[in-house]
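Backbone-to-sequence.
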């Protein structure tokens, strides 16, 4: 096991809140023929008061046909990964994203310009459920690719302090996706646990893949914004109450007061495609 894999394995193994673990078990139980692992990530990782918050999970499955059968959900997940679903369990609410083991490994690595997965898993996460030791090993190996990919994509600057490299890298990833969070949010990721990022720095830098390409951020921004819109459109069909969740998240992070009208719930795809340009114009999402 490489130094970065060892650090990731230790971090993923840190126990989560028992309520989080219980919810992860319930999510996996929805996919008895496909579930391989469940990871918990995001800002709620640092919270002890979970009521009223939206918990974030990734469900890793063996493959999409095993998860859904040979239907349109499998095709959607394969074409524009991940699929995202709402979930409620014992008074807590969550959303979980579904990826195959193959896609999870690929999307954490430098072979994709899509920042969505590796930007998230370069941050702390917990492995809260696994089907077996092999699934655990696959999860650790995939997550261990994320931090080196993030730093490589940002590119090193001579004399730059490691924490500043992390800060700059996260700021670049935040510029790629449609986000309601304020610009300072990318810095707060590192500030929340500077000791952790300092501890990961040497191992992550040493694991940067030979030939990994930095830059390409102009292209990433164009592709990332378009991909965000495509995912939003897909969520109108796969995510129950997706338009309400979109409004809730934007209101929470951008300080807006969006209220969803009945017609918008009836036609969520049209509503989303109308809402996003208005929010962009107002600067509520970037």
């Amino acid at each position: 096991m490489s130094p970065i894999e060892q650090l990731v394995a230790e971090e993923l193994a840190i126990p989560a809140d028992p309520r989080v673990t219980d919810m992860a078990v319930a999510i996996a139980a929805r996919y008895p023929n496909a579930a391989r692992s469940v990871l918990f990530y995001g800002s709620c990782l640092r919270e002890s008061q979970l009521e009223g918050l939206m918990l974030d999970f990734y469900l890793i499955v063996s493959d999409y046909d095993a998860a859904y059968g040979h239907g349109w959900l499998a095709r959607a997940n394969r074409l524009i990964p991940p699929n995202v679903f709402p979930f409620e369990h014992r008074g807590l609410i969550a959303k979980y994203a579904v990826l195959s083991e193959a896609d999870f490994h690929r999307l954490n690595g430098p072979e994709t310009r899509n920042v969505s997965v590796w930007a998230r898993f370069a941050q702390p996460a917990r492995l809260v459920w696994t089907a077996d030791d092999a699934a655990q090993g696959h999860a650790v190996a995939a997550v261990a690719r994320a931090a080196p990919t993030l730093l490589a994509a940002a590119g090193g600057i001579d004399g730059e302090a490691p924490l500043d490299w992390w800060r700059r890298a996260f700021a670049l990833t935040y510029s790629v996706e449609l986000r309601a969070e304020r610009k300072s949010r990318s810095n707060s990721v590192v500030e929340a646990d500077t000791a952790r990022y300092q501890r990961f720095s040497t191992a992550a830098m040493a694991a940067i893949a030979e030939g990994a390409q930095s830059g390409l951020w102009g292209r990433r921004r164009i592709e990332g914004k378009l991909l965000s819109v495509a995912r939003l459109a897909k969520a109108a069909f796969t995510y129950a109450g997706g338009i309400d969740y979109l409004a809730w998240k934007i209101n929470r992070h951008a300080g807006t007061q969006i209220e969803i009208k009945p017609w918008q719930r009836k036609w969520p795809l049209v509503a989303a495609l109308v809402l996003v340009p208005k929010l962009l114009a107002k600067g509520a999402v970037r």
